Write the structure tokens for this entry.
Amino acid sequence: MLSKRLAFALALTLVAFGGLSAIACGGSSSSSTPTPGKTTAPGATATKAAASGTGTPAASGTAPAQASVTIKDFAFSPPSVTIQVGGTVTWTNNGPYAHTATADDGSFDSGSLAAGKTFQHTFQTAGTFSYHCTIHPFMTAEVVVQSGSSASTLPGY
């Protein structure tokens, strides 16, 4: 019984902290908006988008050209996506609080995304790009970018 009370108290504290963080960090007020097509890193572009794509598969045996990430309940879902070089990831904030999608290496930053807003970033180089929400630093995830010739959707191949 004590562990259920502790879990409830912890969950309530996280929700309260998230709400206060959103208010303290500007909540859903207007924020800086990346300029469409603005280069944020060599070979990469970032734009805010009006709607989220559902994903476009590439040629058979390669990673998809597009991926979508949902931001909701203080988490990025899925926590890892794989795309091909030149592919685009779209983040959509489906939660009530503002969030960011910010690369740990600084290569992309959505700025504050209010509820219902989206952000897109096109990846021009292969690698693993870890990212987080600057408002809620415990929220982390990654984008794996594979070269088109060596990417595979089958584990171990």
